[in-house]
Amino acid sequence: MLSDEKPSVCVLGLGYIGLPTAAVIARSGCKVLGVDVTDHVVDTINSGKIHIEEVDLDGLVQGVVSRGTLRASLMVEPADVFVIAVPTPFGDDHVPDTSYVMEAATNVAAALKPGDCVILESTSPVGTTEKMRDLIAKLRPDLKIPGMTKDIPDIAISYCPERVLPGKILEELTNNDRCIGGITPRCARKALGFYRRFVRGECVTTSARAAEMTKLVENSYRDVNIAFANELSIVADQMDLDVWEVIRLANRHPRVNILQPGPGVGGHCIAVDPWFIIHGAPEHTPLIRIAREVNDGKVGHVLEQASLMIDELPGVQVACFGLAFKANIDDFRESPALKIAAKLARRYPGRINIVEPYASELPAGFEGTDTKLIDIDEALESCPVMITLTDHDMFRSIPLDERSGKVVYDTRGIWPDQPDNLQAVTDLRLAS
Ligand code: SAJ
């Protein structure tokens, strides 16, 4: 491939990151083959549709599939650039599981030819790209492998983490800076040339290990800072203070920027990635570990506070606002909101109602609890107790006069003008 020719690209893993990435690369004019292990995913994409929700992704995929620049398959085919974007979950005791990465690398190895570039994007423990390189070297002894030959290597291997925010993936895929770590500087330069084709943000090169750690550090930084906010919220509950007011005031200091407390930390990134650092250096990560524990512990705190409130008002209907792990998306993976709502539903059968505009039916977890999915208006009409668990804009915009007289537990701080519950509780008791 000459440097001004558009490379052919094979993207392995067509999930929340792989599919948008494949589509954005295809939009830049490269021929892209997306590979996934699931028939349904491959068929859906080949028919120009998508199997996940993400802003504007449907139109983009439909466009690139109909132009013939993106197609999907179960099998890897030869390409100039291979991008691996498969999951890296953790197993028991939070031990990172890189088996999907190694499986993908095995499939790539079989298709490699001199001149190819392999890029790992999956969030991975430090050292994974080198392990992947060692595996490729074992499977392809005919190729000169970077870091293992004195000659110019036949292929390039790099690590380049994605850092996009669900709900803004397409925008951030193009505009965010990228950190590209090569097994060697030459590998990094090869990958840099590729990313410059479709990334407008700055692309900075480094080593594969530094890039791996950078990704883990970014999400751990956020986790630690959210843990601080969550710890403050528990202290504020105990001291009868409004934590959001205190944070707002403290953030007026020019060098203070406290994040927002909530019912816990969800999603597949921030609650997972810190464990990859902890696992790599268990004796030197007390702060990162305790932050994880504080954020996971917040779910139990909210559950207890909500139960105290519900216990005070026997027989009264309760509306839980939100199941998604964060605002304005339909993603319920590892959602603290879902965990809390499902536990409340089991604790109070027949009394819990769910308001989740991003769900058409209740997800798993509510079986046998007689829980209903209702809309905002129904909740406002029929539920005297309201618990906010997700900060969807649609909830935030409910005006005070529609919430007045309600007993509210607002775990997200979306209704700062809500009066305290004393009067509402008294009125409810008198009415019953
Ligand atoms: N949360 C709070 N308080 C806050 C901010 C977030 O409780 O002040 C909660 C959210 O409600 C949610 C969780 O944290 O439950 C995570 O949400 P998020 O918006 O912070 O992050 P994710 O998981 O959607 O995406 C993160 C992003 N990382 C950072 O912001 C450092 C994203 O850029 C990464 O690409 C993504 O992880 C990833 O794939 O790793």
Notes on the protein architecture:
This protein has 432 residues and is of the alpha/beta class. It folds into two domains: 9-201, Rossmann fold (3-Layer(aba) Sandwich), CATH 3.40.50.720; 241-431, NAD(P)-binding Rossmann-like Domain (Rossmann fold), CATH 3.40.50. The protein contains 16 helices and 13 strands. The strands form two sheets. An eight-stranded mixed sheet has the order 3-2-1-4-5-6-7-8, sandwiched between helices. A five-stranded parallel sheet has the order 11-10-9-12-13. Strand 9 (318-321), helix 12 and strand 10 (352-355) form a beta-alpha-beta unit. Helix 8 crosses helix 10, helix 8 (208-239) runs parallel beside helix 11 and helix 10 crosses helix 11 (286-312). The longest helix has 32 residues, at 208-239. 43% of the residues are buried. The mean pLDDT is 96.
